[in-house]
Amino acid sequence: MLGFVALSDAAAYRRNPTTARADAAEGTALAADLCFGMAVTLGVTTLVLLLLPSKASSGRKAQYGTIVTF
Fold it and tell me: Quick one: 31 exposed, middle or buried, by C-beta within 10 A (0-12, 13-18, 19+)?
């Protein structure tokens, strides 16, 4: 969503180039890039945590049933 706002700000700058519009487009684009980077980082972290075996599944049975690890 933020990427579309950044593209809209960039188009507004191209129609009427001002310093304020350039700053707005640059700030929105930076925020969109940061959000995208955080989403990728969290996605990779989730995959790693899901694919790695947990300590409870290393041959030992859990004493009380389900174990939630963080």
Answer: middle
Q: Half-sphere exposure of residue 23, counting CA atoms within 13 Å on the CB side?
A: 3
Structure tokens at 31: 């925020």
- How long is the chain? 70
CA torsion angle for 53, 55, 60, 63 (degrees, to 10)? -130
pLDDT digits (tens, 9 = 90+) for 25-58: 999 999 999 999 999 999 999 999 888 887 655 5
How far apart CA 44 and CA 22 sit, in angstroms, is 33
pTM: 0.65
Question: Is the separation of the CB atoms in 19 and 48 below 8 Å?
Answer: no
